[in-house]
Amino acid sequence: MEAYRDQYATMFNNGNGVVVLGISADADTALQSWAKDANFPFTFVSDPTKSIAQSYGDLAGGNYTRTVFVIAPDGKVTYRSRFNVMSKDAYTQLADEVKKASGR
Prior knowledge:
This protein is α+β, with helices and mostly antiparallel strands. 39% of the residues lie in helices and 24% in strands. Strands 2-1-5-6 form a four-stranded mixed sheet. Strands 3-4 form a two-stranded antiparallel ribbon. Helix 3 links the parallel strand 1 and strand 2. The longest helix is centred in the C-terminal third of the chain and has 15 residues.
């Protein structure tokens, strides 16, 4: 995550017009503290009841998986993925999807 924070301006169009949401079951206080301490420019959403995950079918074997959404400037969700934070390919794909959503 730190590499993408540091490359936010180039990889994520500096957040202009595109919203990237990371959703997990982590407590809101934990997400807020972590994001603040690491100075992440992304938006994290806490879903402790797993209602968002259930709505989008993102429960794998009853376990919550982290999900990332890309929302285009017109407000449409253009990408949704169960996000593997340990996979470099996941970040590359996310950056590509942000570029597509922003029209770059």
